[in-house]
Sequence to fold (251 residues):
Amino acid sequence: MTDDQLLRYSRHILLNELGIEGQERILAAHALVIGAGGLGSPVALYLASAGVGHITLVDHDLVDATNLQRQIAHTLKRVGRLKVDSAQQAIQAINPDVRVSAIAERADAALLDRLVAQADVVLDCCDNFVTRQAVNLACMLHGKPLISGAAIRMDGQVSVFDPRHPTSPCYACVFPPEPAPEETLCATMGVFAPLVGIIGSVQAAEALKLISHAGSSLAGRLLMLDARYMDWSEVRIARNAQCPVCSNLRA
Fold:
């Protein structure tokens, strides 16, 4: 670690849970972020500010004026640009030492199979159920921890699905792929602006904890937030022995 890095990350290094070793793990880590919108914005910015060495962003969408109410990585001047390019610019303004790979493609099975294999942690910040299931499958196949977040209206949820631990459920254990639920989009249902910041920040925190080996993760627990009353609730979640995704992979 250089003198500049020792200064930049001094507040992390002071933490007993992190120290120099934990920060060095963060600097060497590769995080894959699926989605550069409401959740992906705080995730990407906090991972970058914390010094994650390589961040891969995947999103095929363009910045729209309606995004600016909550997607804090983007600006009015970057409306019409690819979200991954806009987020890359925001990251590099905070921490130019972070390597950013901007992938302006849909996160389909083939792309995920390639990218998940290269990552240390995967953060699902997308906004549709089909992609969430595809991300989960790729993480299960490659044994990579998945930090999943979701937010709509004034309700949010976040959890960690870690296939490295035999008792940890996968996303499909909790949210089976069939039958697929009716999609609820913020374009029609709305979303409270700070909610995505809260959930995305928790996702970033869980990723940094996993990378640095600090504390314990949310694996086996689903946190839910009702922002109307700022009421957090927690549900214990377990592996489903009949899960259509992970039961065969773990056999």
